[in-house]
Specification:
about 525 residues; alpha/beta; Immunoglobulin-like
């Protein structure tokens, strides 16, 4: 087994680092390989994180003091080979920050079907486990320097540092107002890149290097001063990633660039146009959208939206997200975007609107522990277990995901619908209607302008449709041999005849279907189109 270990004193490397370049990136470049015979594992793979709801646990006292003297908490991702990718956490790093870093790592290691290098990331994750890859999460840059000057500097791990002072959680003031740059993407991907991609996918690493060289030659990417040549590709590719997922779209540099002018682009549109080679290479491993499971901070109070709004600056980045959950107990709300979202509330009462797309509401417990009530529009889901999911009012939500099953919303609360049908098309399109919502009035109209002399209109409703029977008066589209459910008469006023039918407020009728067709009389008989209706919410 190959081991990555630190062989150069951290302080020396720290002095080499420019303000822009994390010192960790430099010390990663001086790791050397040791034989398996000389390797004593210093971080166990079997630390149990299942005892904590969020997977963050105290660092066990049985772990070497090299780590317990510096870090207080721990979490991990288990690679397919059973070995852990570690997260070591200092005391000022919040659980929310640590969970976010772990989920960003999981996002980077999740397979992306159809991509050249990301369709199966098993080998990348396994290599990270073998090399004892560890995100070392410090309070500050100074704390990192102090720790690496001590015994931690000789630990047998492949380390990448991240600081609480450069971490931003969704829903915080810093996130909403873009007051701090979030380095989580950068540092987590550095670890994936150095401990996984570079040793397992050398051809891909070479392609990233070629894209870096092209961008550098074109003047689109300027490496920070003092950065070793072999480290340039690490900084370049994260510039592409950060910009692609919207994290510089608020234009903090004021000139359409990013990273303090190092990279010439700051939005997805501009990077796709200006550095297509970089985007093409990035997309060989990563997906189009940011699909990590993200959590708004517990202190957030308001409506967190994934829908882009030019007047709401943070949506320049949230527009690319697909999954967000509320934390804490504030009565906050979520609004999805046109993507297929997964949205989850907190222990308070929340309103969750999926918006366009095929959206899923997520719940913590089994379906039997929730009371579901249909409403117009949408429905409510009330958790019978206290202090867990609260009561959520859902709208534009296609699925509900419980811990034991996924249920289609249409099966729980069938939505009212009215679908026009006109067979072969010979009938005039003279029949229209609203949708038959339970407890409302269904209104239908027949336009008699194409039938001069009309004195009466009828809407016929049957239990079954007819595929089409051509008659002298038009095409019959309802099955007259099935149960007749409706025969409503009206007299035209001018050229329009209006029918109103009361829909019972009876929940047992939700999902009931009827097949209707309009007919005009007077000066002959004429069949209109059909409308297939479903009673619902």
């Amino acid at each position: 087994m190959r081991l990555i270990t630190i062989t150069t004193p951290f302080a020396e490397l720290f002095q080499l680092a420019s303000p822009r370049v994390p010192a960790c990136l430099l010390f990663l470049s001086v790791f050397v390989g040791l034989g398996a015979q000389g390797h004593a594992q210093t971080l166990p793979d079997n630390i149990d994180i299942s005892t904590s709801p969020n997977g963050i646990v105290p660092l066990p006292p049985t772990v070497s003091q090299v780590f317990t003297n510096v870090f207080e908490r721990y979490t991990k991702i288990v690679a397919p080979n059973g070995q852990a990718i570690h997260f070591l956490i200092q005391n000022q790093v919040t659980d929310e920050m640590a969970v976010r870093a772990r989920e960003v790592m999981r996002f980077f290691l999740t397979d992306v079907p159809g991509t050249q290098y990301g369709a199966d990331k098993t080998a990348v994750a396994n290599r990270m486990g073998i090399l004892e890859a560890a995100l070392v999460y410090f309070n500050t840059e100074q704390a990192a320097g102090q720790a690496f000057n001590g015994p931690l500097g000789n630990a047998n791990i492949f380390a990448q540092d991240l600081y609480a002072s450069e971490s931003v959680v969704e829903g915080t003031f810093a996130y909403i107002n873009n007051t701090n740059r979030d380095a989580t993407f950068e540092e987590v991907f550095h670890l994936v890149h150095g401990a996984g991609i570079q040793p397992i996918l050398p051809v891909y690493h070479a392609e990233m290097t070629a894209a870096k060289n092209a961008a550098k030659a074109a003047g689109n990417w300027i490496p920070p001063g003092g950065l070793p040549l072999q480290d340039e590709v690490f900084e370049y590719i994260i510039s592409v990633i950060d910009v692609y997922y919207g994290y510089w779209a608020h234009n903090p540099d004021g000139d359409g660039s990013s990273f303090g002018g190092e990279y010439a682009f700051n939005t997805r549109t501009s990077v796709e146009a200006g550095d297509p080679q970089g985007v093409f290479v990035m997309r060989k491993f990563l997906p189009e959208f940011f699909t990590a499971q993200l959590h708004c901070t517990a202190g957030f109070n308001g409506t967190f939206t994934l829908t882009f709004n030019a007047g709401t600056e943070y949506t320049l980045k949230s527009r690319y997200m697909t999954e967000v959950h509320l934390s804490g107990s504030n009565p906050s709300n979520l609004v999805g975007n046109p993507l297929d979202n997964v949205l989850g509330g907190n222990s308070g009462d929340n309103a969750i609107d999926g918006g366009p797309g095929s959206d899923t509401a997520s719940f913590s417990g089994p379906k039997a522990e929730y009371v579901i009530q249909c409403a117009t529009p949408g429905f409510t889901v009330d958790d019978t277990v206290a202090n867990r999911d609260g009561m959520d009012s859902l709208s534009s939500m296609e699925f509900l995901r419980f811990s034991d099953q996924v249920v289609a919303a249409a099966d729980l609360c069938p939505q009212a619908s009215a679908t026009l049908r006109n067979g072969s098309g010979v009938n005039a399109l003279c029949f229209s209607s609203t949708v038959p919502v339970l407890g409302s009035t269904w209104t239908a109209q027949i336009d008699t302008s194409g039938h001069p002399g009309a004195t009466l209109t009828i809407i016929l409703g049957y239990a079954s449709p007819h595929p089409g029977l051509l008659l002298s008066i038009g095409e019959l589209l309802v099955d007259g041999t099935s149960n007749r459910l409706l025969a409503d008469f009206a007299t035209p006023v001018g050229l329009l005849s209006t029918h109103t039918v009361s829909v019972p407020n009876n929940t047992s009728l939700a999902g009931f279907a009827a097949f209707t067709q309009g007919v005009t009389f007077g000066g002959g008989i004429q069949l209109c189109n059909a409308i297939d209706v479903v009673l619902g919410y």
